[in-house]
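pasting for ref
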Amino acid sequence: MAQSLDSILIVGGGFAAWAAAAALARATRARIPITVVAPDAGPEPLEDELMGSCRPGILRSHAALGIDEAQFMRATGATFKLGTVMRDWGAPGHSFVHAFGDIGARLDSVAFHQLLNRLRLAGQPVAGPDEFSLAALATRAGRFAHPSADRRSVASTYSYAYHFDAASAAAFLRELALKDGVRHRSGDIREVLRREDGLLRAVVLPSGERLEAGFFIDCSGASSRLLGQALEVPFDAWNQWLPCDRVVHQRVVRESAEPPPGVAAAHAAGWRLSLPLQGQELRAVFYSAAHLDDASAAQLLQLPADVPIPPATPLPCGRRRRFWVGNCVAVGAAAGLPDPLSAMGAQLIHDAVTRLVDLFPDQEPAERLIAEYERRTSVQYERVRDFTALHFALPDREDSGFWRERRHVRLPDSLEYRLKLFRNGGRLAAFDDEVHDESDWISVLSGLGVWPQRADPLTLGMIPEQVAQRIERMRQIMRQAAEAMPAHGAYLRKLGLVAARGR
């Protein structure tokens, strides 16, 4: 018998919980009561600590929530992000910038990376694609300006995102949700009660109070208190493709007023993150416990003498086998956790809630809606998995057992297909529900030393010297545009975006 969904209960107190609450409150216009049950004060969830680097999709999510950029940046100590400097991935000592936006421009309808490949195969010296990306050049130079609205300008060819303090962002979203009528109850979950048909009925707080609801959203983090534990949905680990299973992280004070670019640097057993906030820097070392011990990983943080050495934490990369069961859907790390190298944590959360709003049932059962939600969410997680796994799949380094083992890993079929298609002739697969742009793939593939083995037939009639002259002029235009941008810190101060208090 169908039963109307007359209330929503969200379990969790981090970024995912309050992002879901804020979006659902706005979508339902308070027609359905929403309650967030947040655990008592404790350490920030791991996923919140490590998700402060995001992608341009967050701009769309903020617009849907009516979030003012200046207020958000001041509240979260945020800096602008045009890209990330990637060091030592393809080979030790090599670096490239994975930036947001166009790389070069088409010439006679030929994709720009095909022009570079034509020159490479003709024996011409070829600069990396990030030399033709305005966002990449500005990232290296420590400069920023908002993109131009004039589509004819080279300054319109990029997008941007943020580096932000996710715990402060959760507090920001919390205030937004509470203003829209969301109710907040503090307490841990002592027990989860199920109905006779197996669906969830209520959660029980330590005081014995029962909180019943028609629909539940599990935002309890990697422990997945509702979907994973109460509903017993298994967790599928991705360690064969995303091999870092532990992390140690700490914040340090940054003396310089100029925010440096974000850096993701490979090391002998994983990778390191340097994430710039206003006046602070988050440092994290991600590693395989089979190849590096916790004490050695902590040393890689290179902390000042007066900063305490933090404990290491497990990093469970993977996803739940289901995302929505009955009257419970999981969002955030309760649903799955990609390696933070993806910078997709915030977008996965916002997209999951948007998808839920689009498919939200008015009554149960809702098998067809659940099936569609599962399909879309599974596709997105797999796309993120594949793009992130790419960084570990193509190392040109022999300096450690960790990287030597990467050479023998069987890749997901979808990623193997992409690589074969690109290596053959530079074509990029166009799957449904793509998460990353073509420029993302070109940036990382070329940065890891992957180029097509054959030239695009449309380039064979081109004279390499003439192509080289034209793209060199393009590079000069990009450089001049980057040099014309203000320094990142100066731009923050000019717009009054510096946080009012130290963080």
